Structures are given as C-alpha cells and as structure tokens.
C-alpha cells in the first residue's frame, strides 16, 4: 500500500508542483480581512464560530474552521506568504488520499483501491480546489472530516463519528448532506438492518443537519444581489448542470462550458485557440465514456448483481449528495465544488471494473491518465484562478517597488496602462483586472497593515472623482 501511495504522491507532485508557487488572489484577501476582525485571543477564537448575518459582515455560508480560523492564524504567523498555505493544501490532499484508500478497502471492500486514489489524487478536476485557495481549502477540510467520520462509524465509534461530522459542518456546507448519506450508508452496511439504536443515531444526524442548514441559509444568508446564487428548479437546466459535473469529474477542462452553446454546438473560438488540446481531449473523452457504457451494458446483459450492490449505490448517492447543494445553481458551476465528491465518483467507476482483466483495466487507467494530464496542461494556461494569482503577485511586486511604505490613511488611485489593448469587455482594462485580482482595496490594506487606506480604480470610478492628493499607481498586466 505505502509504496503505491508514495508513487501516487510523486506523480501528483510532478503534475501539480506549480501549486506551491501560486499566490493569493481575489477572495483570499477578503477572507484575510474578515478573519482579522477577531481579536487574537481565546475569546476572539471562540467568536470565530459565531453565527453572523450576511448584512452584518458581508460573508455568506458558515465555514469558520477553514476560513476565519485558518486565515487568521496564517496571517498572524506568515503574513501574505502563500507558501505555508499551499503546503497545507498539499498535505491535506495527501492525507485525504490515504483516508480514501483505507475507506475504499475497509468499508467498500475494493481490491483495487489504488486506482480510486490515483485518479482522485491526480485528476484534472482538482485544479479548481487546489489553485483557487478560497474555494478549495474548505472543501479539502470538509472531506478530511467526512472521511474520518465514515471510518469512525465503520469501527462503531459513533460519538467520534458525530464529532467529526460537526467539524465537517464547520468546514463547508457541502458536507451536510453527503456526510448524512454516508453515515446512513455505513449503518446499513454494518448488517442487522436498521435497529432502533441506529435509527436514533440517524435522527440525530438529520436534526443536526437541519439546524445547520437553517442557520446557514436563513440566519446567515447570502447576498440578494448575487444572481449566481439563486437556485433554478428546471429539469432541463438541472440535467445540464449534472452532466457538466460528471464530465468535469472525469477530467474535462472547466473552461469547456464557456464554449458550448445550446444544442451542443461549439463556439468556433474553442478550436481556433485551443484546438491542439481538444483534438486530443474530445476523442479520448468519447472513448472513455464508451468504455464505461460498454461495461455497464455488459453487466446489465449478464444480469450481474454488481449493479445491485449496496456499496456501489452508496458511493453514487454520496457523490450526488455532495454536489446537490450546487446542482440547482446553473449560473455558478465550478469544479472546486467537486472535491468532496470525487473519491465516490471514482469509487463508483472502478467498482464496476473490479473483476475486469488487468490489461483492460490498465489500458483504461492509461487513457484516463493521458486525458487528465492534457487537461491539466490546458488548465495551466487558461484557468482563471491560476492567471489571477499570477496577476495579483505581479501587481503586489509593482506596488511594493513604487510605494514601499504609505502614510496612514493614504488614498491610492490605480490607473490603466495606456498601452494595454483591451481584448474583452468582461475583463476590461488593467485597472479593472487589478480590482478583481486584489479584491478592491483588501490586498493594499493587508500589505500596508492599514485598514483605513482607500483605493480607487480608473475603470470603476462610475462618475466619482478621485480625492485630491491621491497617490497614483499604474497597473501593468503581462
């Protein structure tokens, strides 16, 4: 086990080593500021776990463990040095890989658990969770505690399992339903049916989840102005969203969704700019899907009981439960929401291939590896979080060279680069790009340790005038 696991870790490091050099960007700076609102004391630590409405702090969702606590401690210890944060991410991923292996062998009785761990570890679907720090670290923490919960329940340590479930809820709301479904499944797989004691346990899980969801969505709430968080309950859109999450789980690049029009028509710009990648990706994706379909068809034709096994359906249900909170958000489809569900996606796939000839399974693994590797190469050039982190780092270096220090309460005016050619209205000129990469004035506040510092951006003045005496800074974008 450990030799294979070490090899998987080495392959991951070979594919994902740029993660270590990826800087903070966007919501990271905002999360730092939110976390720093609490005093550095035991009382301040306890306050991080309080329930505050969106109107009070401008923060949605209850994720104190891997947002408020983690960002507060990281800034206190390392400031805006991103390397320790990235190191923690990779460490968490490695621990999760190990826990997935133990769970797949112990609870799900999989003889080829290494295949699940391998694809979970190196799959291109991890790009979102590993590079978009603000969206990924909470999901990683939630999976860590959900896996510990399942392993504790498998060993009949119910109290420990329940405590781990509470920790998962303090990490990410995606763990609420998936943790409940997994707990229910573990109780069922233990045999002897659903006893009264197990039924009481499940009621406790359901009650806890219900209370948590009430607090998360009604007490804390979200911004009424953010359209992307408004659920859409239309069958067509829901099926479309589910299809994308399945395709992304397999390794299809997230950017593909931006180039597919209704009726599965491709925007010609996709092949124009990225054709050399998709000439490999599309045929391989088709072959992989056909391979899975053939295997399922074979099992159906032979009347095999494998498709009826509870362990398979438990993994399918946990996968679906993990993405259910976002399945009704067609305007907010993101791969980083998949992290918690990915082990159960790959577990479901390889559960179907348990008794298949080793050579065929080996070929299938090779196809998946090549497919995901090509997808990773494309993501390295196009994924928005990667590019925005590079921009944030570049702008911070520029800012530090122009203004090593600033007076208390300074006002900064970020100008456009006059030589920059705007290629997209959505991205805008350099000041607008800087605004998103640096989260408005948040990065400035954090670097200069001055929460009274104010920043104006040329593209976002909206008729407002810049105060006299503002210090000018031109944002240059490579």
UniProtKB/TrEMBL annotation:
Transmembrane segments: 6-24, 36-55, 75-101, 113-133, 139-155, 162-187, 199-221, 280-300, 312-330, 336-353, 360-380
Keyword annotations: Membrane, Transmembrane, Transmembrane helix
Source domain of life: Bacteria
Keyword Lyase in annotation: no
Name of the protein this chain belongs to: Glycosyltransferase RgtA/B/C/D-like domain-containing protein
Lineage per the UniProt record: Bacteria, Candidatus Woeseibacteriota
